[in-house]
Automatic annotation (TrEMBL):
EC code: 3.2.-.-
GO biological process, one term: carbohydrate metabolic process
Entry protein name: Crh-like protein
InterPro entries tied to this protein: Beta-glucanase-like, CHR-like, ConA-like_dom_sf, Glycosyl_Hydrlase_16
Organism: Tolypocladium capitatum
Disulfide bond annotation, renumbered to this chain: 27-34
Lineage: Eukaryota, Fungi, Dikarya, Ascomycota, Pezizomycotina
Occurrences of domain GH16 (ranges): 21-238
Bilayer topology annotation: Lipid-anchor; GPI-anchor
PANTHER family: GLYCOSIDASE CRH1-RELATED, GLYCOSYL HYDROLASE-RELATED
PROSITE patterns: GH16_2
Cellular component terms per the entry's GO annotation: fungal-type cell wall; side of membrane
Amino acid sequence: MLSKTLSAAAVALAASTLVSAQTFTTCNPLKTSCPADPAFGSQVTCDFTKGKSSSFIEAEGTTLQYNGNGAVFKINSETDAPTIHTGKYIFFGRIDVEVQAAAGQGIVTSAVLQSDDLDEIDWEWVGGDNTQVQTNYFSKGDTSTYDRGAYHPVSNPTGSFHTYSVEWTSQAVNWLIDGAVVRTLTYQAAKGGSTFPQTPMQVKLGTWVAGGKNAPVGTVQWAGGYTDFSKAPFLGYYKSIAITDYAGKDKPANGGVKEYIYGDNTGTYQSIKVVGGDSGSSSSSSGTQYSTLKSTGTGSKTTLATATSTSSNSSSTAAATTTGSPSNSAPSGSSKPTTVKGSGTSRTATAVGSVLLAGAGVLIAQLLL
């Protein structure tokens, strides 16, 4: 297993260089006034074997194909990072995503819940490790410690489909594989709730390259080695996803919810205002923000160096209460900067998706280069 072949130092180094989409936001409501988050308000099911879903927006540079396996996330080169995200948000809820992760040394597949203020809950698969999956969580973009990751055994994740779920309430986060709980984080275990993910979140699905030739050594080690692009394309498949919004409660909402508004700068779930009504088109509000980001680079800019500027300054994160494999206490690379070279140079238009899955850890990566 990858988690057992890496030394503790190597795993820690990898973890310290890997913080992806999770630490990037177009507007952080803890620091400024931001647009309201449009709400799902109920359940949406997307069957990608039938084609594109209107609930998801493709990141710039992302062009997906669809077949009997669902949405095909293809990587041919080091700069590829196909990514889609929802236009609407859930405020507590559940996702059930049917995935066959991309096989390939250094290739990573990820399913992420992320909020505007950088709370997040993650699944992540390393393509060279066909025995397990990683989970992780973050609060307010805090990457000051890397003790939240966990590993969970799963049969043939890069060669077969499994359903990976997150059920997220005000009391706990449960991660499930094929309906069985493999990890639980309680609100109290997250430092009395202070580091518990608790603000409205989008869903982001993607694949990216952690084993690129310019990646920091720690990232390459975590990813299992450098990627051999003579073996491309590397294909990940998302067959379906069910997204259920609890609209601030601990059970499914039944519609009639328009949006979520941060009532102050605390980022607590009690401060979030649930506004009734109809949220309309799934891509209305977030689609507008994303277009602004692409065309002007305002807010959290699309350069790797400035993407870190939206991270929280909070000083610590909590250890989780977990069940599952004995290696759960090991730090995980999940959700940490995808470790593109820490040069601080701007991404090309085709790699905005990579910023969503790579922007945040550049400052840390620079320290390692």
